[in-house]
Amino acid sequence: MMEKKIAKDLLKIKAVFFRPDEPFTWASGIKSPVYCDNRLTLTAPEVRLDVEEGLAELIKTHYPEAEVLMGTSTAGIAHAAITAHILNMPMGYVRSGAKDHGRQNQIEGRLEKGQKVVVVEDLISTGGSVIEVVNVLREAGAEVLGVVSIFTYGMKKGLERLAEAEVKNISLTNFDVVAEAAAEEGYIAHEDVERLIAFRNNPSDESWIKK
């Protein structure tokens, strides 16, 4: 099962790292039992191959009409490039803001109006940044089929925002699968899984933290 395989890959290289008894603090101030850095997949060739072949498989299965891949800046760019290479497809990326020099592009790479695009993202939490990218592409006249990502938290807020923006996302793996795999592999105790899911259900409620 791809979800479990990718989950174990991410855990092995500590791209996803659980620390329920010593929470990390996000920029927003929320205390989190998990740290996620999918950039680490780029420096682990075996895991990187699993990820890129997995993304290619998701695109072939869920978005067979795709004509162009567009990476999110900056974390999605490398994954979009490697996946596009596997699929022999054009790719580009969307900047977080327009350049203030040259042609002042926000979309890099050739994109024709009406082209069917899939956005490649590394991580989805609240969904805000990937929705911005989709909106930029839609404004440029692209038909955005949806998103593929490596990991999604599956947070209620993120799922609601994606649904509201009519953005479909398919991820290689998700928070719940990685938490279960972490318990199976001995990275965390089995009893910690319930606490992790409580965090995922409501990140602003800190009752999951052991006092």
Unreliably modeled segments = none
Biggest sheet layout: 6 strands, mixed
Radius of gyration: 17 Å
Strand-and-helix sequence, N→C? HEEEEHEHEEEHEHEHH
The total strand number stands at 10
Mean pLDDT: 94
Strand content: 15-25%
Structural class: alpha/beta
Helix percent band: 25-40%
Count of discrete alpha- or pi-helical segments spanning 4 or more residues: 7
C-alpha end-to-end distance: 36 Å
| Strand order, sheet with most strands | 7-6-5-8-9-10
Per the principal axes of the C-alpha atoms, what is the gross shape? globular
Describe the structure in brief.
This protein has 211 residues and is an alpha/beta fold. It is built from 7 helices and 10 strands. Helix 2 (45-62) packs across helix 3 (75-87).
Structural key phrases:
211 residues; alpha/beta; two-stranded antiparallel sheet
Tell me about this structure.
- The chain has 211 residues and is of the alpha/beta class.
- Helix content is 39%, strand content 22%.
- It has seven helices and ten strands.
- It has helices at residues 2-12, 45-62, 75-87, 128-139, 156-164, 175-184, 192-201, and strands spanning 16-18, 24-25, 31-32, 34-36, 68-72, 91-94, 107-108, 116-124, 143-152, 169-174.
- The strands form three sheets. A six-stranded mixed β-sheet has the order 7-6-5-8-9-10, sandwiched between helices.
- Strand 8, helix 4 and strand 9 (143-152) form a beta-alpha-beta unit.
- The model has no long low-confidence stretch (mean pLDDT 94).
Itemize the secondary structure elements and their pairings.
Layout: H1 2-12, E1 16-18, E2 24-25, E3 31-32, E4 34-36, H2 45-62, E5 68-72, H3 75-87, E6 91-94, E7 107-108, E8 116-124, H4 128-139, E9 143-152, H5 156-164, E10 169-174, H6 175-184, H7 192-201
Parallel strand pairs: 5-6, 5-8, 8-9, 9-10
Antiparallel strand pairs: 1-4, 2-3, 6-7
Helix pairs in contact: 1-2, 1-6, 2-3, 6-7
